[in-house]
Amino acid sequence: MPSWNTVRDDFPALHQQVNGHPLVYLDNGATTQRPQVVIDAVSRFYAHDNANVHRGLHALSMRATAAYEGARARVARFINAAAPEEIIFTRGTTESLNLVAASWGSRLQPGDVILLTEMEHHSNLVPWQLVAARTGAKLRYVPVTGDEGKLDLSVLDQLLTPEVKVFAFTHISNTLGTINPVAELCARARQVGAISVVDAAQSVGHMPVDVRAIGCDFLAFSGHKMAAGTGIGALYGRRELLDAMPPWQGGGGMIAHVGFFESRWKPSPERFEAGTPNFGDAVGLAAACDYLDALGRAQLRRHDGELARLAYQKLSALPNIRLLGPAEEERGGLVSFALSDVHAHDVVTFADEDGIALRGGHHCNQPLMHKLGLTGTVRASFYLYNTAEEIDVLIASIRRIQKFFG
Ligand code: 7TS
């Protein structure tokens, strides 16, 4: 049972020096660190139970299959899906969103509209551009209000017309930190008969997420942003939608019957999992669900939110700084800012000298950056093991950078 007092001890990667300083890891928006229990779960699986899943009647294959399907049930419980069959394992958020766009999106026609927002990560933007080019559907965007970084919902009625067939949006913006009112957006989509797709990459490991309370049709996330391994993630989809969707990749594991000229598909989730899946990391993802739930995701949300608020306050006291995103409680666990006359990459390089891991750049939000007249920002993103003391280290480092650049 993890405890808040000893939480840093659970993460071996945190205990190291970088450039002669204790590591201050503030790049959790890109990927989080893994606790030892997750590393051990994966390593135990490979050491004892490793075999391909669904393919054999021998003991190890049965154990591996039970572990893989157990992980699916655990992930379903983590987001309160109605059934394990509503969870498709993927490589992560990007693959989950590509799956929806390619498979569900294949029914789109000229005249149909895909509604997105200006704060989407490229992975919830480019797959829809691809499907729009293939089908003749058009793209529309809910605008962002400016530096404050909220969705301008005053124009939603004009945008969300009956031609809209899909409304896809992020739960938490990876650049602005904005938490969007996802349940309200899903309800609005439903009113015009559109499906809703939620990008939960930045939310699912940071706060309670309940797909039935949100009322979404699809929800995508990545294991590596919630203390699990890379190359594993999931797509949640409502079962009746999944069962009516065509496969998007063909291969072993997804078929009921194959002839030389035609094949029939298994139901969901197998239909969407062609080839050998990443079962080792699925086991790790289930261990991460256990770990995060033992800490409590409501507490996690409070912790990350408080650090972000503290960082926002302290940064806004500095001169020549432009802060993005909402100042108050609709903010997730990150802060994003630009210093006048210092390039984001220089800030990241200087902070690294102080042992601090940040991210600088467009964060895969190029259209948003263009709209805001920025080439990039510096981002500090927090997780359960970060502390208020680390924010002081960050502020001291930013002061040093500002002094150096005059
Ligand atoms: N959606 C959001 C909101 C994200 O923040 C990211 C990754 C993705 C989708 C894609 O996730 P993936 O696991 O499939 O790559 N965001 C970031 C980031 O902010 N810095 O590095 C990756």
Describe it.
The chain is of the alpha/beta class and about 400 residues long. It has 2 domains: about 5-25 and about 295-405, Aspartate Aminotransferase, domain 1 (Alpha-Beta Complex), CATH 3.90.1150; about 40-295, Type I PLP-dependent aspartate aminotransferase-like (Major domain) (Aspartate Aminotransferase, domain 2, 3-Layer(aba) Sandwich). It has 13 helices and 17 strands. The strands form 5 sheets. The chain has a 7-stranded mixed β-sheet with strand order 4-10-9-8-7-5-6, with helices on both faces. The radius of gyration is 22 Å and the shape is globular. The N and C termini lie far apart (about 50 Å). Ligand 7TS binds next to α3.
What's the gist of this structure?
This protein is of the alpha/beta class and 406 residues long. Helices cover 36% and strands 17% of the residues.
Mind sketching the topology for me?
Blueprint: E1 17-18, E2 21-22, E3 24-25, H1 36-48, H2 59-78, E4 87-90, H3 93-103, E5 113-117, H4 126-135, E6 138-142, H5 156-159, E7 164-170, H6 182-191, E8 195-199, H7 211-214, E9 218-222, E10 233-237, H8 239-243, E11 255-258, E12 263-265, H9 279-295, H10 297-316, E13 321-324, E14 334-339, H11 344-353, E15 356-357, E16 359-361, H12 366-372, E17 377-381, H13 388-404
The structure holds ligand 7TS.
Ligand 7TS binds at residues 29-30, 92-94, 121, 123-124, 170, 174, 199, 201-202, 222, 359, 363-364.
